[in-house]
Amino acid sequence: MSKVYFVPWKQNTDMVGKFKKALKNSNILDNINKGDKVAVKVHVGEYKNTSHVHPLYIKELVSMLLEKGSEPFLTDTTSYYCGNRFTAVGMIKNAFYHGFSYANIGAPFIVLDGLGNGEGFPVKVSEPLNEIYVPELFKEIDKMIVFSHCKGHALASFGGSIKNVAMGCVTKKSKLAMHKFVNFCYDETLCDGCDACTEMCDREIPKIKNGKRILSLEKREDCMHCPGCMEACTKGAVKLSELEKLQHVLPIAVEGIFKILGKENVTSINWGANIVEFCDCMPFPGSRIKDNIGIYLSKDIVAIDKAFLDDAEKNTFMFDGRPDPEIQMLQGERIGIGKLEYERIVL
């Protein structure tokens, strides 16, 4: 049975201080040794997003890693969508804007996939994903701490540690491949050529001809099947289906990362606060859908997400047709990246 350490959220208390004590009183950093190159996987948020993990928590974690004589650095991969985080330069600027600077945190921010166009190296994983592409920098990392903000997600329903690693530790090629498991549906008879989808798409994929969107004119291989078109279309001509397929492949991507680093060298921290509708990739992440719950720490990436989901109640995330978020954990246990059963230790 895996251990999940839990710090209940209490308003009007020093939660940063409680987190620092939890790091000391738990055993999750016991495997960090002097000289270890430690990647702290974070999501600094798209520009103007205010719901991401507060940098003060990252600062306390980095301070403890430095005390142990390791060499920590903050990191993430560039996004597939064309926001600020599409390039390394834009991502580093975002990190600075949102308080994740070296001066503030005490560790540098290093983009995993270079300037943003590195293909990485292939790693074989289970079906149906079969293969992921991992940034070359992973070959030099000794340990990784995955610091995740627990929140909703338009396609994956819920984003925690599993999604943070799956989508955040691979190159653009694999991000696109995973998103394409979601089925894109278009009913031409409902389209009135209003241009809403063309205005929404930052890749300029939709093409309108003679008052209709014409799929045959589009570069379909570039489309990541994001919900942008569907949300923009007021006529219901565009829909996404089979969202649960993305849930199944996310843990498979984690399997690949564990093959490189070793499952025992990855630690997870889930920040169960600012629990909002959408992921940190959105500049405006929507309304809060749950009160702050607490902070979770574990060596098991499946157990930690399951513990949070048990407390938050999975139905919280299953609105607007979003699939069962527990699929991620069930699949994760099935392929051996973690266990569903856990022991909760309240700190």
TrEMBL record:
Location of the 4Fe-4S ferredoxin-type domain: 182-211, 213-243
Annotated protein name in UniProt: 4Fe-4S ferredoxin-type domain-containing protein
